[in-house]
Specification:
mainly alpha
Length: 121
């Protein structure tokens, strides 16, 4: 299952905060802030999808993520590779390095990471 763009934005705030009440989530949004009802609807949808849960404190709910940001991002990248690059990580890497205007320094950093992974295999 996947999050919508607005749900992803809210999820990013929750990942940063680690746990938060709705008011705390609203506070991190820039102006103009979304309506309370909008955030409540997003939180309900995200709970129903199994991405977050909450603890009750009286009538207040403190929300926390059930899915790690790394796991969510990894699933998306792997889906992208499968759907747009014929399930070929090397095609993705080729596209990424050619089409993203990386600096020479950034490419060298990537090369170092790749060389390190090769040594670890």
């Amino acid at each position: 299952m996947q999050l919508s763009k607005t749900e992803e934005e809210l999820m990013n705030h929750l990942w940063k905060l680690e746990k938060a009440f709705m008011k705390e989530l609203l506070d991190v949004y820039p102006e103009p802030k979304p309506a309370n009802t909008t955030i409540a609807t997003l939180l309900k949808r995200m709970t129903d999808k199994g991405f977050i849960d909450y603890k009750l404190f009286g009538k207040s709910r403190q929300y926390y993520p059930l899915v790690k940001k790394k796991d969510y991002f990894s699933k998306h990248v792997n889906g992208l590779i499968k759907n747009f690059f014929n399930d070929s990580a090397s095609q993705f890497a080729s596209f990424f390095t050619k089409e993203t205007n990386l600096t020479k320094e950034e490419l060298e950093d990537l090369k170092t990471l790749i060389d390190s992974e090769i040594k670890n295999k």
